[in-house]
Amino acid sequence: MKSITSLSSDFLVIRGGRRLRGRVKVSGSKNASLPILIASLLTEEPCIVKRVPNLLDVKTTFELLNTLGAQVHFEEGKAFVHAQALNSYLAPDHIVRRMRASILVAGPLLARFGRAVVGMPGGCSIGARLIDQHLKVFERGGAIINVKEGYLHMEVQKIKPVEYTFEVITVTGTENALMFLSRCPKRSVLRNVALEPEVMDLVEVLRKMGVEIEVEGRTMVIRGREDLAGFEHEVIPDRIEAGTLAVAGFLTGGEVLLEGVRIDHMGAQIEKLKEAGAKVEILGIDRVKVCGDGRPEPLEISTAEYPGFPTDMQAQFMVLCTVAKGISHITENIFENRFQHVNELQRMGANISLRGRTAIVHGVERLSGAEVFSTDLRASASLVLAGLIAEGTTTVRDIYHLDRGYEGLEEKLNQLGADIERVKDANTAG
Ligand code: EPZ
After folding, report:
1. pTM score, whole prediction
2. CA-based angle 98:104:109, to the nearest 5?
3. Best residue for ligand 1 mutational test, from 168, 190, 239, 265 (most atoms within 8 Å of Cβ)
């Protein structure tokens, strides 16, 4: 597997003002694919994961699995992973730095081999991104953890059953704990767990592998097994890609039919779209049509753990608020620094001020095109949305951030009538 070393600085040129119309199929979930692909480390048997989106973080995960010695094959959205004989328990720094979610290999490696050496995942631009909760569960299970030269060295003889109440509701913390305990035959109890659909998709997979998991509110009771089976699983649709496309349809005054979604995963977003004045027609559990005309109504948004309003949709809905008929307030409760898109939106004429964790957005008639820079995955998506409705042309730079988490977003938008050109970075054009 070719290592992805140089991140291309391709950029997008977006000519705004076009209504989006038509239908688009939503891809499989990035944040469900990553832990599920990594769960294949727990078994000597082959695993098949379907509807895996072809994006940078998935390719990085394949590279990581390869580095550990697993065989990986990926074609047309179907990944074959066979971790029959691993020959390493080291997750190298250069991979972890590229994708923090690499920390998810710690749980499976400890469960299977009793050893894991993982580069310390640094923070990222949206916040400190701590992993103290992951480590506390490992220590409760008997692991010894030392930090040496920027690496976490973890060892455990025999994993003990764990009773732990998370101090913070953490998505990958819950996922790491589940995989860590998946081969421990005794009864463990995790409280205050995350219940995101992506976590529950991993629970489905672990159950297929032979792990007993009961979920009662935010409490999970786990009974693992030494000999876990391989699995075949189709990941859930990406509710954040779906939400991003829905906002695009509404904001451009268009009419977009999203196919292959899970409506039951999008409740909080759909409520806010309706409040903003979108016409939302639910045509079944997997199809929803979103239409818009005229300026949105202002919104009060406060991000929260699922089923609350998703932090991964905060930047996209902020674009909607920048052209609303009034003043909106957006409070980011999950990450401490997830307003990097604000500066870039201001360059496009948005009127936003920050008070601690709250952005106060005074809606303006129209944004105007500008050259803007992506700072993180969802910020880059918000800049694309802003470009779709801005007067004139918008150039969105550093879209490797976008490519980390979206499978061909500009192609999907162009298929709906947008005018977006990807300009390849001369140095890395393949
Ligand atoms: C997952 O990140 C997602 N990534 C993120 O999506 C998402 O924004 C986030 O959950 C919240 O929903 C993946 O699933 C790969 P957390 P994760 O642990 O697990 C604090 C995207 O755009 N915390 O739930 O890293 C932490 O600092 C990405 O697709 C601790 O204090 O998020 C943060 O403030 C961005 N100690 C909060 O909890 C810990 O041990 C939520 O973090 C763990 C987390």
Report:
1. 0.96
2. 120
3. 168
Residues 358/330, Cβ–Cβ less than 8 Å: yes
Rounded Cα gap, residues 270 and 147, in angstroms: 44
Longest dimension (CA), the chain: 63
Report d(CA 278, CA 289) in Å as an integer.
Answer: 10
Task: Determine the pLDDT at residue 8.
Answer: 67
Please tell me the distance from the alpha carbon of residue 42 to that of residue 44, in angstroms, as a whole number: 7
Domain boundaries, the chain: 11-27+237-423, 30-233
- Coil/strand/helix, residue 247: helix
For each successive 10 residues of the chain (430 residues), what is the average pLDDT? 62 97 98 98 98 97 97 97 94 92 97 95 76 97 95 97 98 98 98 98 98 98 97 98 98 98 97 98 95 96 98 98 98 94 98 97 98 95 98 96 95 98 77
For a pocket test of ligand 1, which of 64, 125, 166, 334 has the largest count of ligand atoms closer than 8 A to its C-beta? Answer: 334
Stretch (H or E) spanning 422: strand 419-423
Please give the CATH number for the structural domain made up of 30-233: 3.65.10.10
Q: Would the CB of 168 count as within 6 Å of ligand 1?
A: yes
Q: What is the dihedral of CA 10, 59, 24, 16, to 10 degrees?
A: -20
- Look up tokens 């039951």; give the residue: 264
CA pair distance 141, 126, nearest whole angstrom: 30
- Reply yes or no on domain 11-27+237-423 having CATH 3.65.10.10: yes
Least Cα distance to 362 among 346, 385, 386 occurs for: 346
